[in-house]
Write a structure and sequence with these properties.
The protein is α/β, with parallel strands linked by helices. The chain contains three helices and seven strands.
């Protein structure tokens, strides 16, 4: 399923991928070669740490390649008061006090910013929020453990 990304997030992830496939691979290869020169590989902690780092980096490269290949890039939000991918929403669950309201980023985890928790646009709650405006009308959605209702208190870009 394609991931919707803002232009800024797409460019940031493309730059990360470029850095990992160029500078990152060269740096890891250098570390492996230096560790290999230290001798016996079976008891060489530097070698095993470098190989482990290489594995993590290659996993991230594959993840970024897949994400960017299928990404749908959106430009600025047409109406910042309507929930769209990249919007920050302030909401509370029905029955909670206004003081219990929390802010979330609606979109991809790769869009994360300001230490906000992310609500995926592919999740039941994310789908229920898309296209909505803040207001007094409750928004219900089917969660894995039953139907839940939220009140959308604010939307910003």
């Amino acid at each position: 399923m394609p991931t919707t990304l803002s232009r800024a997030a797409y460019e940031r992830l493309a730059a990360e991928l470029d850095d990992l496939t160029t500078r990152g691979r060269v740096e890891i290869a250098r570390k492996i070669e230096e560790a290999r020169a230290l001798g016996d590989l079976s008891e060489n902690g530097d070698y095993h740490a470098a190989k482990d780092s290489q594995g993590h980096m290659e996993t991230r490269i594959r993840q970024l390649e897949g994400l960017l290949k299928d990404a749908v890039v959106t430009d600025e939000v047409a109406d910042p008061e309507v929930v769209a991918s990249g919007s920050i929403v302030r909401m509370k669950y029905e029955g909670d006090e206004d003081d219990d309201a929390e802010e979330y980023l609606v979109g991809s985890v790769e869009e994360r910013r300001d230490d906000l928790a992310v609500i995926s646009t592919n999740s039941p709650l994310g789908k229920a929020l898309l296209g909505r405006r803040a207001g007094p009308d409750p928004i219900s959605y089917d969660a894995p453990n039953g139907q839940l209702t939220v009140l959308l208190l604010g939307v910003r870009a």
